[in-house]
């Protein structure tokens, strides 16, 4: 029950977890949460915007993660690199209700075939290469560990997201200075930077980013 006395209707689990730097929930954790929720009659929604990144990190199939959700979403555009689109999975009854709600709020999309085609290419070809993004993210974490400008997490990244702490609170200033080096990074408030590696980021780009940080640190 919530603090207002209403029963919990749904428990949402995100993996990989964006705000936690792309960390991946273990299958044991997912099973425990799903077990507790279902025992109390609450549905489980799996927010798998980067579901395939999580699966690659664990060395398993995406279905092994998805089995713990009554409903599941995943994004075609992030690591899978399609131009747009997300997929909602669930029972037949659930999907029929979702389609009704989508049309009710104006979420219909005409001539969507070209986007669906890109989504199929993403699903068929992109998951197998996500490990490259993870490897490069780990490499960047290792390169930035000794940079005085920022602080990296103590534990290495599991997927393709790297969060950097900015002790002096000058994240926006660092963003502007990095832009002069051709590096586009987004600040998450004054004390954090967020970097995401994708298929357009190669080994040379990792070198360029680490070199730019070293140049800024050196003044």
Structural overview:
- With 219 residues, this protein is of the alpha/beta class.
- It folds into 2 domains: 10-128, Type I PLP-dependent aspartate aminotransferase-like (Major domain) (Aspartate Aminotransferase, domain 2, 3-Layer(aba) Sandwich), CATH 3.40.640; 129-217, Aspartate Aminotransferase, domain 1 (Alpha-Beta Complex), CATH 3.90.1150.10.
- Helix content is 42%, strand content 16%.
- It is built from 8 helices and 8 strands; from the N terminus they run βαβααββαααββαββα.
- It has helices at residues 27-39, 51-58, 62-66, 92-104, 113-125, 130-144, 171-179, 203-217, and strands spanning 10-14, 43-48, 71-75, 86-89, 151-152, 161-165, 186-187, 192-196.
- Strand 5 and strand 6 form a beta hairpin.
- Helix 6 (130-144) packs parallel to helix 8.
- The longest helix has 15 residues, at 130-144.
- It is globular.
- The model has no long low-confidence stretch (mean pLDDT 93).
């Amino acid at each position: 029950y919530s603090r207002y006395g209403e029963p919990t209707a749904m428990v949402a689990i995100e993996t990989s977890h964006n705000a936690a730097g792309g960390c991946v929930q273990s299958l044991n954790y997912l099973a425990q949460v799903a077990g507790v929720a279902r025992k109390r009659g609450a549905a489980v929604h799996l927010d798998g915007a980067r579901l395939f990144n999580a699966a690659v990190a664990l060395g398993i199939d995406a279905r092994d993660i998805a089995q713990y959700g009554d409903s599941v979403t995943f994004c075609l555009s992030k690591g899978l690199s399609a131009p747009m689109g997300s997929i909602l999975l669930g029972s037949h009854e659930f999907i029929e209700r979702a389609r009704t709600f989508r049309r009710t709020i104006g979420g219909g999309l005409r001539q969507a075939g070209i986007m669906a085609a890109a989504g199929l290419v993403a699903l068929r070809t992109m998951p197998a290469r996500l490990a490259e993004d993870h490897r490069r993210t780990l490499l960047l974490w290792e390169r930035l560990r000794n940079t005085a400008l920022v602080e990296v997490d103590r534990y290495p990244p599991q997927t393709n997201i790297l969060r950097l702490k900015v002790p002096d609170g000058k994240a926006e200033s660092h963003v502007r200075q990095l832009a002069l080096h051709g590096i586009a990074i987004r600040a998450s408030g004054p004390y954090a930077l967020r970097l995401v590696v994708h298929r357009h980021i190669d080994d040379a780009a990792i070198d360029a980013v680490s070199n730019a940080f070293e140049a800024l640190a050196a003044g």
